Amino acid sequence: MEEKIAVIGAVLDNPRDTQQDFNKIVSEYKDLIRGRIGIPLPDKGVSAIALIVIGSLNEINSLTGKLGKIDGVNVKTSISKKEI
Length: 84
What we know:
Elements: E1 4-12, H1 15-28, E2 33-41, E3 46-55, H2 57-68, E4 73-79
Antiparallel strand pairs: 1-3, 1-4, 2-3
C-alpha cells in the first residue's frame, strides 16, 4: 500500500463546543497519527491543532473529511508527493 506523510492543520472556532467531537474522530484514526501539537488560545476563543499523519491517501482524506464536517472546525491538509 502506498503511504504518504501529511500535515493536517485545524482551527477550532469554538473549542468548548467542538473539542469533544474533534478528539473522538482523531482517536478513531490513532494508528495514522505520529504527532499532535495543540495550541489553545483562550483569549482569542480558538484553538489551533496540527496533526502529523502517515497513511494512504484514502485514509488521510477520510480523516480530513470527517474533521472538516464538524461545525466550527476549519481544516487544511498538506500531503507529500513522495511515497514513503
